[in-house]
Every structure is written in C-alpha cells, then in structure tokens.
Amino acid sequence: MRAMVLDKPRQRLQLRDVEKPRPDRRQLLVRIATCAVCRTDLHVADGELPDPKLPLIPGHQIVGRVEEIGEEVDSKFKVGDRVGIPWLGWTDGECIYCRSNRENLCDRARFTGYTIDGGYAESTVADARFCFHLPDRYDDVEVAPLLCAGLIGYRSYRKTGDARRLGIYGFGNAGQLIAQIALYEGRDLSVFTRPGDRTTQQAAKELGAVWAGGSDELPPEKLDAAIIFASVGPLVPAALRALAKGGIVVCGGIHMSDIPSFPYSDLWEERVITSVANLTRRDGEEFFAIAPRVPVRTKTETFSLEQANTALDRFRAGELQGTAVLTVTE
Fold it and tell me: Distance between CA atoms of 13 and 7, rounded to whole angstroms?
C-alpha cells in the first residue's frame, strides 16, 4: 500500500510502498478514505513531541471502512462499516487511571500517528475499542476534522462546566468547532485572536460571538472560563487576567511554549489553570451525539495523499483557509 512516512523529525515525509498491515484478534483493518491534518502532526514532524515511533506513518483523524475484523472484536462492527479512528489508540485497561474512568491518562497509552502508525496511508489497523461509528450527516471529508479538533476541543469545553461567559483564545479548527457548540448551548462567547487580525475577529462575530478582539485586549466583562487552543504559553497569564473570581483557564493543546511568570494576584480568588490530555471514549460518544444536532460544520481544504508535505507546509505557514484533509481512497 502507499503511505507517507516520517523517517526522522524535521525531515519531509516520504511516499513509499509499504506492507499492508494485518489486524490482530482485537483490531480492525480499515481502508482509509480521508485523514485530516492536525497541529499535533506538525508537533510530531517538527520534533516538538518526544520519542515518536520511527519510521512513522502520521495522522490521527482517520475516516474509513472496515475491511477485516479480528476474531475477538465484539459484534459492534461489521465489514463495510464506516468508522473514525482518533488520537487515543490503545490503553491497558488495568491501571489506576483506566479503572477510575481516566483512560486518557493511562501510563501505557499508545497514540495514533505518534507511537503507532496512523492515517497518512491507504490502510491501517486500529484497536476496535477505540474506533467510533460516525454520524451519517457528514461525508468523509466533513467528518475527519471532528476526530481531534472536535473531540479534544469538546473535552476542553466540558471542563469549563456551566460557565456562562466563555472566552476562546485561538480561533483555528478546534476553536471554531467548539464555538458552535457553545453558542448552541447559550454561552456568551468572547474570541481572542492575534492582535490586529480583524478578519478572524469579524468571522467570530458573524458566527455569534458577543465580542472579539486581540489576545492583548480584555473583554468588556470578566469571563467565567477561557479555553486556550493556541500553543502560546504567554496566553495563560493573559487569560487569567480576563477571568472573574473562581474562573478556570483550560489549556487545550498537547504542546505549548513556556508559560512566563505572573503575579500570584492574577491566580488568587480561586482561579484555576488546568490542561487537557488526550480524550476518552465517553468524550467521543457525547460529542458525536451532539455534533449533528447543532449541527457543527467544518471548513476544509482537500489534498491528495501525495500532497501531505504541502498540506503540512501550508499549515505551518498559516496559509490554510480550513482544515487540511487528505483524500486517500474513493
């Protein structure tokens, strides 16, 4: 099968013919239709995440059809089913985290497109426990970005509880998807962009934000919660200064630049900073139930499998007008 392979961080992916994988007794063999490109793919390719499997087939927002089913997979899946394969690819099911409904923190967890091969290829295998049936409302291109920006964004959003005044720092893929759910659920949304990015600020207002401005500004009212999707550490103290007493800052990325020091007074009065690590299957089930009701809409640009480097380059340069999605098979 064809695959785009990362041999070493900070090198370009190579198009190769590699052996088609075979599923073990608990896996599905999936023929890939599409795979969305995520910022985490950039972090892996650019060497910002440690110890990836090498050589590696990246990609963890995978949409495809089941071709073969391992002998111990339950009857939840059948050949021909459309499935989604997300970032969290395997857990041991036995550790204290798995046994306390925190499988996203499993010490032995494996991650699609990072420590196990992913979706920049014509086929892949995946642990059936961590595959999702996908809503019929979406086609293969539309649904792919929901498998990471949507799922981990949704986990970040749920960590804000019932916050009425919500801020989002970074209005890229995840920010735009979660903003739609926040507005659907009646939150007062403020959006923070790069200073001077009037185009994105206007787009946020047209979507329904009550305020949009630069990350160097404060909103008219203090926020009950803020989610930071941009991987920019200095946004953490900026978001703290925008919070009301008892508010929470949720850092929604897997990688962030260093957070600068800030005065304790910005944290005092029971403000909270927390991170989000990975996702759980419950997050996926809840998100794919609510997304079609909103309905959450995605904006995409398509590339062929062979154009994966071009998609990554344009993502890195901030030149994409939507989520890059690799179209692999018909």
Answer: 7
| Residues 158 and 121 occupy one common structural domain | no
- Asked if residue 156 and residue 140 are part of one domain, the reply reads no
User: 84 — phi, psi (to 5°)?
Assistant: -115, 140
Q: Which residues pair with 183 in a beta bridge?
A: none
Q: Which residues span the domain enclosing 107?
A: 2-147+299-327
Cβ burial of 20 (10 Å; 0-12, 13-18, 19+) is: middle
**174-214 pLDDT tens trace:** 999 999 999 999 999 999 999 999 999 999 999 999 999 99
What is this structure's pTM? 0.91
Is 311 a member of any domain?
Answer: yes
Q: Calculate the dihedral angle through the C-alpha atoms of 125, 128, 134, 139, rounding to the nearest 10 degrees.
A: 10
Task: Kindly state whether residue 292 falls inside one of the protein's structural domains.
Answer: no
Counting the structural domains of the chain, the total is 2
Q: What is the pLDDT of residues 114-126, one digit of tens each?
A: 999 999 999 999 9
Average pLDDT over residues 138-145: 97
